[in-house]
Amino acid sequence: MAFLAQIQARHARKLEAEASILRLIGLPTCLHFLANESEVEDNDGEGTSTTAANRQSPEELFERFRKMLKVGVPRVSVEAAMRKDGINPAGLDGPVPEGAVHIDRTAEQLPTDIVALSRIRRRKWHWTQVPKADRAPPPPGGSIWMEVSEEGVDERISRASQARLRELFVKDVGDTLENAERDSIASVDVALSTVQRPDKTGNVRILTGQKALNLEMVLKPLKKPFDVVAYDLNILTAVYLSDTDIKTIVAMWPSVAEARALDEYSGEFESLGMCEQFLMTLRAVPRPKEKLQCLLLKLELASRVYELTQMVILVTRALNQLCSSQKYCRVMRLIRDFGNIVNNDVGTKPSRRFSLESLLRMAHTKAYEDPKVTTAFDAFMEFIRTEENGELVNFHEEISLVLQCKSVSVDALTAEFNQLREGYLLVKSIALTSSSKDAGISDSQAELARGAFSGFADEVDGELRALHKLFDRLESCQKFFQSWFEENTNSTLDAHLRAIVQFALEVRARNPINLRASHS
To answer: In angstroms, rounded to a whole number, what is the distance separating the alpha carbons of residues 440 and 437?
Structure first.
């Protein structure tokens, strides 16, 4: 009996694997080679599946069926497979109570309306819903989604538009369907070519030939004696060095072994090469590499602060413009109605909100009519031209500042601010540690260095304080933006802006007025 039980269990696992494959590709699992098995084997197989399913966490159970939706399996088939496995189909739309994950397969009967729709195949726009735990609370006056209820789509949207959307995204399974070829996402392999520099045959006393070559390109045009450069570096007045020159010197700075060789050199100074003489002179200054970095910051401070200020102000104004644009808010609610119609949520429980990142997925849903060309985005363009007298098709004109943020990264702006702050800390550190105890530095030189770096530190500190106020204002606008759209607080502002900008630019490109202007 034990041997027979082992055979039955092994065969049950095989049947479950075959059934899972069939469910994944959207075929019914009751094919002849599965249906002809004995009742005992069927019961054993189902028990094994249920036992394995019970061992999985609820999120793992639902994630497997969500993947089936993503690869194109009709939702009706996925829900039927879930009921067959004793799993609650409501988990596809969001978390379910812990006790409602599993359902009774024998007692659960399909509602009559679902049975009636079983012959319907629908291509849905799988928009992203923000989990309640991660959703920003709406502002006291209400969010964009609260101004107009999600109910009443039939009254807001014309019957002609609703019929057109159902014509594009709904098909009777009884009809002869041609399998639409899926657009494959071509993965682009970017080959990064590494520049191979030829080795120099000439011998360099200490530095490698390539380092010597790079440094010589900086030093040959230099008119100042090396000791003057070192003195000016110590008091931050070597502004005749360009930012490119300083970056090259820092990049070609001697390694540990090369620095040791320079320190141990006891020959004639004049017998050294140009690069070695320059480095020997410069390294007599306390913390020369750090002072070069401070000098670079001094040369770039004004331009970096100006550019950072302009970009932060632009993003702040763009967020304010986005939240105050009446047309854009109406477009977002129109997209909500569009999605509820396409997903057939009007008659059941329409979605109140969606994540802005869903705008990037509209082109992923193919229509039954000419699927190689027509997508959900194409259908929406036809939809927006017919609804509300077509006056929303130029909504992008009200958010022109947002479109200017196409190449702006808020994360990069924050990183730039942090780099400036790190530069300030370095300058402040050198100002505090400048002392006559440093080798080769007199009291007067130490005092000059301390005064120069202290003054520059105060200058950088003043710029950082002004920038900090701008970033605080940007953060406040970002929080209101998240509350206004009830967005995911864990998502970056860059992700939201990227979705909005790309969507608006696509709409502008499809606008017939813009098309005529581009060809004129």
So the answer is: 9
Distance CA 410, CA 404 (A): 13
Q: What residues of the chain score a pLDDT lower than 50?
A: 31-53, 107-118, 175-204, 515-520
Residue 225 and residue 345 in one domain: no
pLDDT of residue 301: 96
**Residue in 64, 80, 69 with CA at minimum distance from that of residue 122:** 69
CB 362 within 8 A of CB 331: no
SS3 call for 196 = coil
Q: Note the pLDDT tens digit of each residue in 300-349.
A: 999 999 999 999 999 999 999 999 999 999 999 988 888 888 887 555 67
Rounded CA separation 435/42 (Å): 86
Give the count of domains, the chain: 3
Closest to 415 measured CA to CA, from 288, 312, 262: 312
Sign of CA pseudo-dihedral 435, 440, 444, 446: negative
Which residues have CB under 8 Å from 194's CB, separation 6+?
Answer: none
Distance from CA of residue 517 to its chain's centroid? 33
- H helices of 119-158, in order, are 153-156
Cα separation, 425 vs 453, whole angstroms: 11
How far is the first Cα of the chain from the last one, in angstroms, to the nearest whole number?
85
Angle between helical axes of 443-484 and 226-234 (0-180°, round to 10): 60
CA distances from residue 13 to 10, 20, 42, 473 in whole angstroms, order as listed:
5, 10, 10, 60
- 518: which residues sit within 8 A by CB, 6+ positions away? none
**Same domain, yes or no: 247 and 232:** yes
CA 429, CA 72: separation in Å to the nearest integer? Answer: 60
Q: Are 307 and 118 in contact (CB under 8 A)?
A: no
Angle formed by the axes of helices 209-219 and 274-282, nearest 10°: 80
Within 8 A by CB and 6+ apart from 32, the residues are none
Domain boundary among 248, 271, 292: 292
- Its pTM stands at 0.67
How many residues can be counted in the chain? 520
Integer CA distances (angstroms), 104 to 61, 94, 196, 261, in order: 16, 20, 67, 80
Burial class (CB in 10 A: 0-12, 13-18, 19+), 338: buried
Q: Which residues contact 317 (CB under 8 A, 6 or more apart)?
A: 401
Residue corresponding to tokens 């696992």? 13
Whether residues 441 and 345 share a domain: the answer is: yes
